[in-house]
Design brief:
Radius of gyration: 21 Å
Structural class: alpha+beta
Helix content: 40-55%
Strand content: 15-25%
Distance between the termini: 35 Å
Largest sheet: 4 strands, mixed
Number of helices: 11
Length: about 375
């Protein structure tokens, strides 16, 4: 269907991104899977092409584009090539907006050029071993001591946490009766004494999307590394979660398109009972239904992007988009795998990797149960 958000400039970017991912990404997947993470040189090359700093101001080496639609193009092309680059998307779609919104002029000068170039990759640390979607329950603590915060605690399920050079950590800096108060964002730099990384977590999917446990033992974080105002992190986090959830929805739609494309190609070649699998009515109906759902989800997503760019995307609407798109992704990838038959269960087929990669979409960025709770509240329930 006709795009509501893309123009010639987006298609020019699409061509650059497609060429880069096919040339530099696809051949490296086996090596990345063995290592359990992406070679950092890949991010630096992406940065040189301008793929990491599209929304960073030009004065800092970025593209200076305000619209999220440019990030969408890059994500779509990565998933079209069957590349699950979660850490890169966390950097561009989730963390960079925090720096754009809350960094001081000095912090922007200090960090943004390297964020755009890929010399500094980022992660955001919210989830803790006992705390998932309940941000108000964050227990990691930071106590102001002179010119630095002394940070103690642990984080887990941190996407990009192994490779990250800068980690935005949500920590409790004061005890308040309202648990949503007293949270602060601190930027922890790799190499700070007392900061350590645990194992690269072994997931069922997203095999080269490094996911870390992080530990903070009396880490002294200078006041100059505080992002935004002390005690305001809950507001910052909840405000930016709309964009994060849109990023999850985008990944769901893009992967679903890639799954359908791969399946259409396969069923035309696969011969069953003497004729192509594509000629069976069940095959046609399954793919037609999946295609209709993807188009519906994409229309919902594009409207949400327009709202996001205008600063009008509500938390409830972001939850609706994330819920619908991620559930649609699960149905679509499952239906596509079924059409592959036994081959769909073999790891060397992209559809098998998409199947396991898709499952987390209903969990991260806030579980879909949380999305339903947010939506229900907006209905007055």
């Amino acid at each position: 269907m006709r795009s509501l958000i893309y123009g010639p400039e987006h298609e020019a970017l699409r061509s650059v991104a497609r060429s880069f991912f096919e040339r530099r990404g696809v051949p490296q997947v086996p090596e990345w899977e063995r290592a359990g993470l992406v070679d950092p040189s890949f991010y630096r090359e992406a940065g040189k092409l301008g793929l990491l700093g599209l929304r960073i101001p030009e004065e800092f080496g970025g593209g200076g584009q305000a619209s999220y639609a440019y990030n969408m193009v890059v994500a779509e092309e990565a998933l079209r090539a069957h590349l699950s680059l979660g850490p890169m998307r966390v950097h561009t779609d989730v963390v960079v907006p925090y720096f754009l919104s809350y960094a001081t002029p000095a912090q922007r000068e200090r960090w943004m050029p390297a964020l755009a170039s890929g010399e500094l990759m980022t992660a955001i640390a919210m989830s803790e071993p006992a705390i998932g979607s309940d941000l108000s329950g964050i227990a990691t603590r930071a106590v102001l001591d002179g010119d630095a915060y002394v940070l103690n605690g642990a984080k887990t399920f941190i996407t990009g946490g192994i490779n990250a050079d800068l980690i935005v950590v949500a920590a409790r800096t004061s005890a308040e009766s309202d648990r949503r108060q007293g949270l602060t964002l601190l930027v922890v730099e790799a190499g700070m004494p007392g900061f350590s990384r645990g194992r690269n977590l072994d997931k069922i999917g997203l095999k080269y999307g490094d996911t870390a446990e992080l530990f903070f033992d009396d880490v002294r974080v200078p006041i100059e590394n505080r992002l935004g105002d002390e005690g305001s992190a809950f507001t910052y986090l909840t405000s930016n979660l709309a964009g994060e959830r849109l990023s999850v929805a985008l990944g769901s739609v893009a992967m679903s398109r890639a799954a359908i494309a791969a399946t259409v190609e396969y069923v035309k070649q696969r011969v069953v009972f003497g004729k192509p699998l594509s000629t069976f009515q069940n095959t046609k109906f399954e793919l037609a239904a999946a295609s209709a759902e993807v188009e519906a989800a994409d229309c919902m997503l594009q409207q949400a992007v327009i709202e996001l760019d205008e600063g009008n995307l509500s938390g409830a609407d972001a939850a609706r988009v994330k819920l619908f798109c991620s559930e649609m992704q699960g149905r679509t990838v499952d239906a596509c795998l079924q059409l592959f038959g036994g081959y769909g269960y073999m790891s060397e087929f992209p559809i098998a990797r998409m199947y396991v990669d898709a499952r987390v979409s209903r969990i991260y960025g806030g579980s879909n149960e949380i999305m339903k709770t947010i939506i229900a509240k907006s209905l007055g329930l």
